[in-house]
Amino acid sequence: MRSITKVISGLKIHILIAIVAIFAVACGGDSGESAGTTAGSSGSSSTSSSSQSSSAAPAAKPKAADKPATVQGAKVDELIMGLISPTRDYFRSWVKGTADQVIKHDPMMEWLFEVSPETNTFGPWLATEYEIAADSMSWNLKLAKGAKWNSSSGKDYGEFNAADVVHNHALWCDPDYPGREDNPSSGYKVGMCQVETVEVVNDHEVNMLCSMPCPDLMFYYGEPTDHVQYSKAQWDMEGEQAYETHIAGTGPYVMTEHKLAESISYRKAPGEHWAHPVDWNGLKMTWVLEEATRLAQFKAGETHLTEVNKDLTDKLIAEGYKMVKSTGPAQQVQINFTGNYYGTEDESRDKFIGITGKLTDHPFTNQDVRQAINKAIDRETLKEELYKNRVTNAYVHGFYEGLPGYDPTWADRFEESHGYDPEAAKALMEKAGYGDGFSAEAWLFPFPGAPELIPVMEAVQVTLKRLASS
User: For the whole model, what pTM was predicted?
Assistant: First the structure.
């Protein structure tokens, strides 16, 4: 008998959106509400591309209310974080890009727009003021003044300006950009490149002209994506590889050491940061895949922050450790089906080419199969057992309640079409001609901020095997 054993990545099984949290050592002060540890996704931020698009220009700098309410001051010179994985252990974010890798960029680099840690809404960053045109075909951006480029090399790359915005757009969207070795790729590239032209008004003002209405520009040029701002002056002076060895950024820290697959160290940049003062003189991100090792390092005092599963979360809280929790949803968990591509596979290059208009003959291309798999998964049990009910359902990719465009009717509609119903799932498999199931593969891998990701996939495997054998 054939059986459905595993399931992988085209159309999605939407499971959960999680509140991100991380542990701090007990001496670090109470962060308030204690809640679950970091929960994760199969590869994307949960901030939706249906981002806020305001025609009103905000204040020149983020409001004080958008910053954490209290600052206690640093208790250590260097904050050490015990994390799972860097995802991509390099710094050119357009090379096989994914937003999941930019945790490494965050201390030293900045975006045009940020997501407020207090309100979870888009707001100003290096674009200190912005306005969308009435027809949504362009945006006018006023740029930060005094945002200095800093690097461990100590070289003077000047200050962030309009030329940098032009440069970063071209890195992603100019197919023949001089000096770029690798073609850019990212799930967000299409959205980034709906901007056809960056028109320079002056050193601190640009117009971004789009090929179509682009009300979601703040998302694609903001913190949820891999479109961080790189220095054009450094590119012109030293070339692309300088972004790997001594990358310049406008953030409050500079990278001082990168040990491949092991750690990245940062020190506070010289002078006062243009917008956000920071407490620690240094930061260090360490990468350890094994949860037991991360936990041992944390309890031994070798790291000050770490991420572990929810069961360990509760034990650590009971021992007096403190939780640092995000103020809203931050990651999503999803399972993607393979095979849903209208193309012809070129096996010699391991890629799809051309447009055939036809899907391959594969179970995952059958809508009934996809619906059956959705209905076979008991999300409530996963939420209770693995996430301790510290998550909410994600009905549409990237959306959670409160985002612009969220539809409250999705919950009821989802329950009817994709909610847990093993008998309906079995009937759909019979209808699709797969009553005895079929075999497929899944990749089990650790993921930053997602210690539960592997057990989630293992639980789904067991569920689907039961479906085929019932």
Answer: 0.79
